[in-house]
């Protein structure tokens, strides 16, 4: 009897690879090319095959171990004649001895090898001197001839744990999808599971709303509310349905973070109220919104990342040199967001008139599609409605949105005493793929400074 230690072959690259699956157990008989363990590195998953036929005597690894080339994996006992011949030949590294076996081709599925690009070098078997301890009941191994070029890794292997036939690439994909391979019907030779089988399984599961396979959104079940009391069912407006789809798309795609602050608008309010008569004379109304628009335009110019958009593939940022700002308008038909153009180039009176005009058009449903396009940033002001704060949802492809809540007079400590100040709560939600906390913090702090001292708007 000869015990042979099989080490990890050249697996390409110096970094280690993790043992993610052990395919054999002590007492198992293995053939040449039969998978022993599956390793996974950052780049690939690969099955490491046995180079000899025999009986597994000892496992030298456990799942989770990090292995490198030369790490001992398994000890195999090759006790029958053919096996010993092969073993001796390989152990000695003798090409001649291998050739004497007839140089027959290894039992490797070449088509699979072509399909799945994971090809570590052959493991190097090393003889182990101590006497083997083979279970008496162990089935004698049946050695197979080895190709003159040495055994290539076999990708079509039997999963001894669950009788699943699949190669490492398919196993890796299944792990990524969270698909239990035992649930997938294989269409390959001998029921082998192919990538196409896995794709089909995932597609069907998504169609059936089966979330166990991963990926699909769990559905909220429909409920017959009439069983609990009287109900009235109404059709949703097209606008409401469109808004719902946009909100969900944003919520699912954009990693949101929301930042909070208060702007001290005491002076701004005094100034604004002093202009009330002027506003009436101009036939308009001066609310805090035009000041907020103007301050946002200045802050966007100073913090251009918040005036950018991310390309769909995430590779580039598009910085816009213009500052068009959307303004959410609450209408009986639903939410609409007309866009005010070139806010950075307009004065407060011009903006005040435009806010009124756009809000009126929105409520009368007279906005044209182009009136709602091209926004770089959005303001959602609930200041006239109330509330102390809310977290708005980013309006992609924009990367940030400002929520404005109702200003209120509050006591503020000035270092010596509490003084009554008018504070306006602001919340900034942003796409954290693009905007970092620092960017958002600088933007919001700058905005608060501008609104707290409107003289800065002219700087
Ligand atoms: N704090 C306190 N008072 C405020 C305020 C604030 N932050 N913002 C506005 N106000 C006051 C205004 O000054 C005005 O009072 P006065 O007439 O006494 O000055 C009053 O509230 C009404 O303002 P308005 O609503 O007529 O005008 P506006 O410029 O403030 O807002 C618009 C215009 C179109 C933004 C607003 O009407 C609107 O539709 N807001 C809703 C936005 C929305 O739905 N967002 C949620 C989107 S997500 O579902």
Structure summary:
By secondary structure, the protein is of the alpha+beta class. It is 27% helix and 22% strand. Oxidized coenzyme A binds at residues 287-289, 327-330, 335, 355, 359, 380-384, 404, 406-407, 424.
Question: How would you characterize the overall build of this protein?
Answer:
Mean pLDDT is 80; it is low at 81-162. This protein has helices at 81-91, 95-100, 110-115, 168-177, 195-207, 238-253, 266-274, 276-282, 288-302, 348-363, 437-452, and strands at 3-7, 17-22, 29-30, 35-40, 45-49, 54-59, 66-67, 72-77, 125-128, 158-159, 164-165, 256-264, 308-310, 317-319, 325-327, 329-331, 334-336, 339-340, 377-381, 400-404, 408-413, 418-431. α9 crosses α10 (348-363) and α9 packs across α11 (437-452). The chain has 11 helices and 22 strands. It is elongated. By secondary structure, the protein is of the alpha+beta class. Oxidized coenzyme A (CAO) is lined by residues 287-289, 327-330, 335, 355, 359, 380-384, 404, 406-407, 424.
Radius of gyration: 35 Å
> Could you tell me the strand content as a percent range?
15-25%
User: Shape, please?
Assistant: elongated
Strand runs, count: 22
Briefly note the structural class of the backbone.
alpha+beta
- Enumerate how many helices there are, as a single number: 11
Uncertain segments: 81-162
Largest sheet properties: 7 strands, mixed
- Helicity range of the residues? 25-40%
What is the mean predicted local confidence, pLDDT? 80
Report how far the terminal alpha carbons are from each other: 90 Å
The distinct ligands, each listed once, are: oxidized coenzyme A
């Amino acid at each position: 009897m000869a015990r042979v230690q099989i080490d990890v072959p050249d697996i390409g690259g110096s970094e280690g690879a993790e043992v993610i699956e052990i395919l054999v157990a002590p007492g198992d008989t293995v053939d040449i090319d039969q998978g022993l363990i599956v390793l996974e590195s950052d780049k690939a998953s690969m099955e490491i095959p046995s180079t000899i036929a025999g009986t597994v005597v000892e496992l030298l690894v456990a799942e989770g171990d990090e292995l490198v080339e030369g790490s001992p994996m398994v000890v195999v006992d090759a006790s029958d004649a053919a096996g010993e011949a092969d073993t001796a030949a390989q152990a000695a590294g003798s090409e001649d001895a291998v050739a004497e076996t007839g140089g027959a081709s290894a039992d490797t599925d070449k088509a699979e090898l072509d399909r799945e690009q994971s090809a570590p070098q052959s493991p190097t078997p090393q003889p182990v001197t101590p006497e083997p301890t083979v279970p008496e009941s162990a089935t004698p191994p049946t050695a197979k001839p080895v190709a003159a070029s040495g055994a290539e890794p076999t990708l079509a292997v039997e999963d001894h744990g669950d009788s699943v036939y699949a190669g490492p690439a398919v196993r890796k994909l299944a792990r990524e999808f969270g698909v239990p391979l035992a649930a997938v019907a294989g269409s390959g030779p001998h029921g082998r599971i192919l990538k196409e089988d896995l794709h089909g399984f995932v597609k069907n599961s998504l169609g059936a709303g089966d979330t166990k396979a991963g990926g699909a959104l769990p559905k909220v079940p429909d409920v017959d509310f009439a069983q609990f009391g009287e109900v009235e069912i109404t059709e949703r407006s097209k606008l409401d349905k469109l808004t719902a789809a946009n909100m969900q798309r944003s919520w699912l795609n954009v990693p949101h973070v929301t930042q909070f602050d208060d702007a001290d608008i005491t002076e701004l309010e005094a100034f604004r109220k002093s202009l009330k008569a002027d506003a009436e004379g101009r036939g308009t109304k001066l609310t805090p919104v035009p000041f907020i628009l103007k301050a946002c335009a200045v802050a966007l110019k100073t913090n251009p990342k918040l005036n950018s958009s991310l390309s769909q593939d995430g590779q580039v940022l598009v910085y816009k040199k213009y500052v068009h700002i959307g303004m959410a308008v609450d209408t009986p038909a639903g939410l609409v967001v007309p866009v005010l153009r070139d806010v950075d180039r307009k004065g407060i009176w011009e903006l005040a008139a435009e806010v009124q005009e756009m809000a009126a058009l929105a409520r009368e449903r007279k906005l044209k599609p182009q009136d709602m396009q091209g926004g770089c940033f959005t303001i959602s002001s609930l200041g006239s409605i109330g509330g102390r704060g809310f977290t708005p949802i980013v309006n992609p492809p924009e990367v940030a949105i400002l929520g404005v809540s109702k200003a209120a007079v509050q006591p503020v400590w000035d270092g010596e005493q509490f003084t009554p100040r008018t504070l306006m709560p602001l919340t900034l939600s942003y796409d954290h793929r693009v905007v970092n906390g620092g960017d958002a913090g600088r933007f919001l702090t700058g905005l608060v400074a501008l609104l707290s001292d409107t003289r800065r708007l002219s700087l």
